[in-house]
Amino acid sequence: MTSQPSVAIVGRQNVGKSTLLNRLTGRRQAITEDLPGTTRDRLYIPMNHAGRDFELVDTGGMEPLPQDTIARSVNDQVRSAMKAASVVVFLVDAKAGLTPQDHEIADEVRKSGKPVVLAVNKADNARLSLHAAEFHSLGFGEPMPVSAFHGRGVEDLLDRVVELLPEPEAVAKAAPGLRIAIAGRANVGKSSLLNALVGAERMIVSPIPGTTRDSIDTPIDTASGSVVLIDTAGIRRRGKIERGVEEYSVIRSLNAIDRADIVLIVLDASEPATAQDTHIAGYARDQGRGLILVVNKTDLLENVDMTEYDRNMAARFKFIPYAERLYVSARTGDGVDRVIPTSFEIQSERAKRIPTPDLNSLVRQALARHAPPSAGGKLLKVLYATQVGVCPPEIVFFVNDPKLVHFSFERFLENRLREVFGFAGTPIKFTFKSRGE
């Protein structure tokens, strides 16, 4: 996979790393909340400043003495980000002043061996800017006072970062790929699935529900083609959504579905599919996305009749009978190798276009087999049909009176269309118009 130079923003918790990233990118990419530990995974955002392309990497807050598994994982993620970075922005807090934690994190930053820009955040006025001087003792040269909240000093900070980037000819630009969103309820194994697909511990994995909060983009190259995997925070029932960080995470998850081509609805094989699972799938269907039901944790199933299990799964998701169903175990890797090829197959179906003569021939044959609906002695007549769009496929039927179209007749047409032309894994949009429209 080709990559751009990256700039990792590191520091202890709650110094404003995500706020700085949002200020530098000019839009709200990272979740910001006045709570320590809001950011956990690495968040990669493409940037351009002064004609230079690079990636900004937001990281979780480092803890010199981590007390739990997640904190240790966050530290590992930060170290990985610094190892891969071309430049490190070490962020500290002017209001809090120099702390023992800053000194300990400075030692970690020094071990990376990368060029470092020391930025003193929350220097919201001239008085606080003077506090930057005390950070000289960290040994990274002249501290740069900035205010991520107000935007003070951020242009100078970007100028300094660009000066330290490697020469552009040494970096190749990555091509866009098939966008695949990994969605589902909390704790069904979305991040574990991403790790299995990528083949590296890119995301933090924990049995604690809600570990992933942002939507994270991971570009990879596969035998099928280039892919951008979008891992999302788990979506809970509306009544279970807490305000603040989790509320923002749900919005990000829905946004991730909005910008995906294919959505993997990840389910827990050891639990029955829930109403929330169907709601997520319904949202993806309404957005016209390709759909794969990925039943994860199949290694937990023992003495289960998989034929009957699959029949029950089909009944639970009967509103999307065209959706592909894959049974996998992210933990063992079983079945994971089918996810990416199936996604590309579905994308090909989404882009399929039916020649107008073939489409109208099918409609005539369908009408010969199934009498069209009527009302008040008036019979529905289908005058002409044409495909007007792809991804998802969109077909317009010109009829004598759109009010005569019944949903059962529409479903019959769709079933017949799928029998002949496929369209596996993708919804099809039907529009009925009168002759004059």
From TrEMBL:
Superkingdom of origin organism: Bacteria
GO molecular function: GTP binding; ribosome binding
Chain positions recorded as GTP 1 binding sites: 11-18, 58-62, 121-124
Record: residues binding GTP 2: 184-191, 231-235, 296-299
GO biological process terms, semicolon-separated: ribosome biogenesis
Protein keywords: GTP-binding, Nucleotide-binding, Repeat, Ribosome biogenesis
Residue intervals passing through the bilayer: none
PROSITE patterns, per database record: G_ENGA
Pfam families: KH_dom-like, MMR_HSR1
Function: GTPase that plays an essential role in the late steps of ribosome biogenesis.
Subunit structure: Associates with the 50S ribosomal subunit.
Protein name: GTPase Der
Organism: Dehalogenimonas formicexedens
